[in-house]
Amino acid sequence: MNIKIATRGSKLALVQTNLIIAALQQQCPELKIEKLEVLTTGDQIQDRSLAELGGKGLFIKGLEERLITGEADIAMHSLKDVPPTLDDDFCIAAVLERQSPHDVLVSEKYANIAALPAGAIVGTSSVRRKAALLQLRSDLEIRMIRGNVDTRLKKLSDGQFDAVILAEAGLKRLGLEQHVKEVLALNSFTPSVGQGIIAIECLQKRHDLIELLQKINHPQTYAIMRAERAMNRALNASCNSPLGSFATISSDKLHLLGVVWSLDGLQRIEAQQSGAIKDAEKIGVLAAEDLIRQGAVKLLGL
Q1: What is the pLDDT of residues 188-206, one digit of tens each?
Q2: DSSP-based three-state secondary structure for 26
């Protein structure tokens, strides 16, 4: 069987794609897998924020087009880039085991957020990270930073920023964890939905691929994904909402923390729900309903 996997062409995307390929070939050594590198709209336009461009979905549309045309069989995504609702043609067929969900502070001059001086310039393209940071330090200047990990680290070393906030999982997968100065607490910096999870998408009608991908699917991570994404859908939120969601599994119970900030970081509400793993989506919906009762719709501007 031959499989072609569509991926973005960044160094991190290719590393993550290689993880999928290795997992598949371990299960099915006879598989022949090719990579199809795609330059997405999100990669092409670097001078505007993702919120202004229409969201992180710009990173997946080009890959989905290759699935529709048959140029590719499956597509690799960082789950945090995938909108909470997919078109009916597509499904997330499998996920790899979640790696670190944490955000981290990277700086060449300062050891942690507390050490940043008033007016320090911190780079992030995420409205969630901006809101969480402003809640802790309203005296900081937050500026948009786009580009792949190497580009962001270069802008930092060039002195354009005093610090940047990045995902720990990406740095670890690239072997760049030595740049981490502070791992940020999950309660203060509740991660983006699906942060640290590699997702594999295919067409709903490709039952052969779905059956194959189940061999490398991580069931606990898949349940975590279902809960976090269900909360996002129930809130009608997007990848560009100031919202965090983090699910964990312990003793056959799934626990979900959901957080919503105001864009300026001055307000923060949270909800926690627990239940059976099989009820992952129900848990996500219950968390969303709790957040809505607390005023999430107004904070999210919906």
Answers
A1: 999 999 999 999 999 999 9
A2: helix
Instruction: List, in order of start, the domains of the chain with CATH numbers.
Output: 1-96+198-217 (3.40.190.10), 103-183 (3.40.190.10), 219-302 (3.30.160.40)
- Choose the catalytic residue: 43, 47, 73, 81: 81
- What are 302's two structure tokens? 């919906």
Structure token digits, residue 272: 């926690």
In angstroms, rounded to a whole number, what is the distance separating the alpha carbons of residues 141 and 157? 18
Distances (CA, A) of 67 to 76, 83, 88: 11, 17, 13
Spatial separation of the C-alpha atoms in residues 42 and 93, rounded to whole Å: 23
Which residues are CB-contacts of 167 (< 8 A; sequence separation ≥ 6)?
80, 100, 102, 103, 104, 191, 195, 196
Q: Please, what sign has the CA dihedral across residues 284, 166, 63, 12? A: negative
All residues at 6 or more sequence positions from 28 whose CB lies less than 8 Å from its CB, including other chains:
1, 212, 215
| Residue keyed to tokens 């598989």 | 31
- One-letter amino acid of 244: G
List Cβ neighbours of 253 (8 Å cut-off, separation of 6 or more): 274, 275, 276, 277
pLDDT digit string, tens, across residues 97-148: 999 999 999 999 999 999 999 999 999 989 999 999 999 999 999 999 988 8
Instruction: Name which of 10, 7, 15, 26 is nearest 216 in CA terms.
Output: 26
73 is catalytic: no
pTM over 0.90: yes
